[in-house]
Amino acid sequence: MPITDFLSCTRVFDEFDSLSPAQRRHAKTYATGLVAASNKTVAGIAREVLPASGKRALNKFLTEYDWDEQEFNHERLEELQKHGETRWSKDGYIILDDMITEKAGDEVPGVGRFYDHAENDTVWGQDLIYAFYADDKTAYPLTFRLYEQQDNEDDHHDTKYDLAREIVTELEEEVGVRRHTYLFDSWFAHYSGLPDHIESYDKD
After folding, report:
1. Do the beta carbons of residue 55 and residue 42 sit within 8 Å?
2. Are 16 and 24 in contact (CB under 8 A)?
3. Which of 31, 61, 124, 142 is the most exposed place for a label (fewest CB within 10 A)?
4. Using 50, 70 and 90 to split pLDDT, how confident is the model at 124?
5. Comparing C-alpha atoms, which of 67, 78, 63 is closest to residue 175?
6. Using alpha carbons only, what angle is made at residue 22 by residues 16 and 28, rounded to the nearest 5 degrees?
């Protein structure tokens, strides 16, 4: 069945300053499609979500439009603090981790061959360094960075440690997450400077 209207949860996008009116429509289309469409590709969402402006317009929004994804994400986090069930709790934790998502093509940004501990083998995909918030009533992502491998000595991509410290800086200085404890696997602490960086913000 076609989806004849945007999901009610997307109405909050109307209050986001990071999007123009036209961009809000595309954002509502994409979010509605990710939740409700049976085919979650751009073509599938544009076909199933009837208020969409078409596949080309939606793809252009995702790949070419000039909008600030980080500002949009910060506005999302601000909205979550307005509701009791998603507001940060004094018993909450910030979890730092990485996740490999398998990909098929070689034109995907940051794609490469990574060792996946869950598969106990190397896989072709993307490696995301991310922060996640969790307490006893809710859990949701905070922010992420795409890790890119260095193919040769001339490459100067950030290390996973660099990206983890960058995430902590964003959460502390821009987002203002008022939680005191970070959790992460022990490999994040190996000569990374991450524990000292976290403690510099008076966090555990």
Report:
1. yes
2. yes
3. 124
4. very high
5. 78
6. 65
pLDDT at 19 over 80: yes
Instruction: Give the pLDDT band (50/70/90) at residue 154.
Output: low
Q: What is the rounded CA–CA span in Å between residue 43 and residue 22? A: 19
Is 127 in contact with 98 (CB distance < 8 Å)? yes
Instruction: Return the C-alpha torsion angle 172, 27, 9, 145, nearest 10.
Output: -30
Q: What is the DSSP string of 112-172?
A: EEEEETTTTEEEEEEEEEEEEEE-SS-EEEEEEEEE----STT--PPPHHHHHHHHHHHII
Reported as a single tens digit per residue, the pLDDT across 168-197 is 999 999 999 877 899 999 999 988 999 999
What's the pLDDT band for 153 if we cut at 50, 70, 90?
low
Neighbours of 129 (CB within 10 A): 23
Which residue bears the tokens 């509502």? Answer: 28
d(CA 92, CA 65): 35
For 99, the enclosing helix (H) or strand (E) is strand 93-102
Distance CA 202, CA 197 (A): 9
